[in-house]
Amino acid sequence: MTGSCIVRHFNHFFPLDDGDEALLEEFERHPEPMRRHQHLWRINETACMLYTLKSGWAYAYRTSPRGEMKVLEVFLPGDIIGLHDFTFGHHLTGVRMLTDGFACAFPYQDILAACEQSRTLTAAFFADSARERAVMNERLTTLMHCSARMKLAHFIIEIRLRLAGVTPDLEQRFEFPFNQKILASLLGLTNVHVSRVLSELERDGLLSKQRRTLEIHDYDRLHEEAQFNDACLHPDMHRLCQ
């Protein structure tokens, strides 16, 4: 199996041929080491580059009128970061590293060139963007209408399923590098509320969290509580490529 995170990410949608994989691997040719909290870009900076994460995690954020950071999205290895700003001249959000890792920068023109050479990759980029929107809609619905316990369970299942798309043989114990502040910002809760709900889930035997890792002890029960719609992670690529 290829060692490229971005290839595994897109193979999750649709089998790629050698030519498609070679085009995607070009996006990871120049990985740069990134430190935790380091910015890929800041809000309103000129948008001219995209990034893919070869390793590590990152997040997008906005700043509220009160100066509070609001986390909007989380990026995992293999994700392409910046597609939402593709048609704008500046970045609408800031993006920072959540962990140490390696990020690969490439100009917008590289995406256009890849699309010119491969109909499959063109469909894959559309599908990836559509999946991001579907996941965001799923999360927003939960944030607006569900309990704190369901919000947290829903997000944990989302991350577990997204990781499974790029991590072969992912087990129920996996990296989960979120502190209470980040989780609270992302889910619209307080730090105290996040701590209380995590303790409840642990006490009920559903999971356990230790620093940067999380282990799910009863996936079926946690998934049932989350009511996560798995379909939002699986676009119909076969229909797009007909």
Automatic annotation (TrEMBL):
Keyword Ligase belongs to the record: no
Superkingdom in the source lineage: Bacteria
Domain HTH crp-type, chain residue ranges per copy: 146-220
Keyword entries, A-Z: DNA-binding, Transcription, Transcription regulation
Coiled coil: none
One Gene Ontology term of the molecular function aspect: DNA binding
Keyword Acetylation part of the UniProt annotation: no
Pfam family, one: cNMP_binding
Name of this chain's protein: CRP-like cAMP-binding protein
Organism listed in the record: Kushneria sinocarnis
